[in-house]
């Protein structure tokens, strides 16, 4: 095969065949980079493995021996090998301590790291990527087809091998760029960020590649978890720990595994399939409650609290991200908006929280003609960051001057998709858990007199506005709640019934199950004001009609 193995496959085969020649029944099968050795006696197999390791060292190669391939055939169903690494003697075996074949991990990996190997291996991966794309049919694929081809076949193949090689981040990013370059040639891709690993309508930002780093992180975490449970050789865990520079605990308690996941996700700077710093993990990771993060006090000129919403004024504002930096991180739309509307107000929104049960929402408003920044934040009763992001967008729409152009920059593509559907008038409110907040966003948007633009911006890559919003949102999660909206108990003369707080379930408790409809949320204050399926005489439900005649 071209690339790596062409360098040394021939001399290696000769040496291995000499090593196994002491066993008459032994056979050697080699095709491209795949090698199978069958022999009945253990010493012959051990000699072959030693040759492979000796040959691999200068190249920094990894010999991945499948468990099935490690079992010698016939009377000796065992293979083991001992070698030195970092002045330590390591013993790998296909049998566990009790002499039974390992059932729970698939690969016994022998790892070597050298600077020399990184360059060779990078060239090897480049040749894999190039040959994969050259093997595709010579036609223009649709964006979804192209991404599906790469996501399902190329990325998993590369990611597994890269995990084994523990490639440095910059190499991985370089390979990612090569894939992106090839993709742009075989498909008319919209300008989208490679970070968003999701399908969907091919509007900006909703179709994207699985990032290699995310895949690699997931695989690495799996290895770490196995190591913590004692299910993979301790050497593997040791080398991963070195390569990632993680403070990984050595005990296999739930606490330490969760902590290890959080550390690893931070170290690899990615959300590993939902393993972000979310309260669900925090619940069993954090023994003590975190204190609220400290807010920056330099240049603070004013601070007030009104109806639960905190307001801050600063004499300085966060640096606006440069066009090149935005493009580098895939935020093309944001880059174009900031360039084309230099006089528009900027609103950096974020919703997040360190608190166990609640999150905070914050918006940083920057007027380009004024050096200062205005920040608004409040706490919300939700333990996921998505509704917090929606609240932050609502805060931006309410607090920015209505007669000024506004650019909303959020790091949550799901919340921006909702905003997009509200503005285009295609939002399905009833099917949504957060219908109340979505209606408030629509109302606030319709009250604006100047154009409102919005775009996705990457989080935690050094964009100052986003980092400010993140700090204030985390701080807000520890502040008092805003009071609920004041409502009259019964307001019959307006042709609609408003009951404070939750609807009076006791009136028809036996008829209507509490979760019969998503809009019957304990905090849907606007339930009877806006809801078309609620009239005073008949309640139409997803599962049929309920009439309460005497009501």
From TrEMBL:
<feature type="domain" description="RNase H type-1">
    <location>
        <begin position="341"/>
        <end position="478"/>
    </location>
</feature>
<dbReference type="InterPro" id="IPR002156">
    <property type="entry name" value="RNaseH_domain"/>
</dbReference>
<protein>
    <recommendedName>
        <fullName>Reverse transcriptase domain-containing protein</fullName>
    </recommendedName>
</protein>
<dbReference type="GO" id="GO:0004523">
    <property type="term" value="F:RNA-DNA hybrid ribonuclease activity"/>
</dbReference>
<dbReference type="InterPro" id="IPR036397">
    <property type="entry name" value="RNaseH_sf"/>
</dbReference>
<dbReference type="GO" id="GO:0003676">
    <property type="term" value="F:nucleic acid binding"/>
</dbReference>
<dbReference type="InterPro" id="IPR012337">
    <property type="entry name" value="RNaseH-like_sf"/>
</dbReference>
<feature type="domain" description="Reverse transcriptase">
    <location>
        <begin position="1"/>
        <end position="112"/>
    </location>
</feature>
<dbReference type="Pfam" id="PF00075">
    <property type="entry name" value="RNase_H"/>
</dbReference>
<dbReference type="Pfam" id="PF00078">
    <property type="entry name" value="RVT_1"/>
</dbReference>
<dbReference type="InterPro" id="IPR000477">
    <property type="entry name" value="RT_dom"/>
</dbReference>
């Amino acid at each position: 095969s071209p690339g790596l193995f062409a360098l040394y496959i021939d001399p290696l085969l000769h040496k291995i065949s000499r090593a196994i020649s002491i066993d008459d029944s032994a056979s050697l099968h080699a095709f491209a980079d795949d090698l199978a050795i069958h022999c009945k006696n253990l010493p012959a197999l051990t000699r072959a493995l030693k040759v492979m390791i000796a040959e691999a060292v200068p190249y920094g190669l990894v010999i991945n021996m499948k468990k099935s391939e490690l079992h010698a055939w016939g009377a000796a169903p065992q293979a083991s090998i001992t070698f030195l690494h970092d002045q330590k003697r390591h013993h790998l075996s296909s049998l566990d301590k009790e002499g039974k074949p390992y059932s729970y991990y698939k690969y016994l990996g022998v790892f070597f790291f050298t600077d020399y190997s990184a360059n060779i291996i990078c060239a090897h991966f480049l040749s894999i990527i190039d040959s994969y794309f050259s093997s595709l049919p010579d036609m223009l694929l649709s964006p979804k087809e192209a991404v599906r081809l790469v996501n399902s076949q190329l990325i998993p193949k590369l990611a597994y091998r890269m995990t084994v090689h523990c490639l440095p981040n910059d190499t991985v990013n370089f390979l990612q760029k090569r894939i992106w370059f090839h993709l742009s040639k075989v498909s008319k891709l919209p300008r989208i960020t490679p970070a968003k690993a999701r399908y969907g309508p091919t509007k900006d930002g909703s179709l994207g590649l699985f990032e290699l780093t995310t895949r690699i992180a997931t695989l690495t975490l799996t290895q770490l978890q196995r190591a913590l449970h004692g299910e993979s050789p301790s050497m593997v865990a040791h080398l991963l720990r070195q390569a990632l520079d993680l403070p990984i605990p050595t005990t296999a308690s739930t606490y330490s595994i969760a902590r290890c996941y959080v550390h690893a996700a931070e170290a690899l700077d990615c959300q590993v399939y939902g393993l972000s710093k979310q309260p669900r993990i925090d619940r069993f990771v954090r023994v003590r409650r975190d204190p609220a993060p400290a807010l920056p006090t330099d240049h603070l000129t004013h601070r007030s609290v009104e109806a639960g919403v905190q307001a801050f004024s600063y004499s300085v504002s966060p640096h606006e991200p440069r066009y090149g930096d935005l493009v580098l991180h895939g935020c093309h739309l944001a880059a174009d908006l900031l360039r084309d509307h230099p006089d528009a107000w900027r609103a950096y929104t974020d919703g997040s929280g360190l608190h166990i049960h609640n999150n905070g929402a914050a918006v940083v408003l920057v007027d380009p003609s004024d050096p200062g920044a205005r920040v608004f934040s409040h706490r919300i009763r939700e333990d996921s960051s998505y509704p917090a992001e929606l609240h932050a967008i609502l805060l931006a729409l309410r607090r920015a001057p209505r007669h000024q152009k506004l650019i909303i920059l959020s790091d949550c593509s799901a919340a921006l998709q909702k905003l997009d559907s509200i503005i285009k008038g295609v939002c399905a409110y009833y099917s949504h858990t957060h219908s109340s907040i979505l209606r408030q966003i629509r109302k606030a948007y319709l009250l604006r007199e100047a154009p409102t633009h919005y775009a996705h911006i990457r989080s935690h890559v050094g964009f100052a506005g986003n980092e400010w919003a993140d700090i204030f949102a985390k701080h807000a999660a520890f502040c008092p709640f805003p009071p609920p909206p004041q409502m009259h108990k019964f307001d019959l003369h307006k042709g609609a019934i408003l009951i404070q707080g939750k609807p009076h379930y006791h009136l028809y408790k036996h008829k209507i199950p509490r979760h019969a409809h998503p809009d019957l949320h304990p905090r849907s204050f606007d339930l009877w004001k806006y809801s078309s399926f609620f009239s005073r005489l008949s309640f139409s439900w997803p599962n049929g009609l309920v009439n309460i005649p005497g009501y």
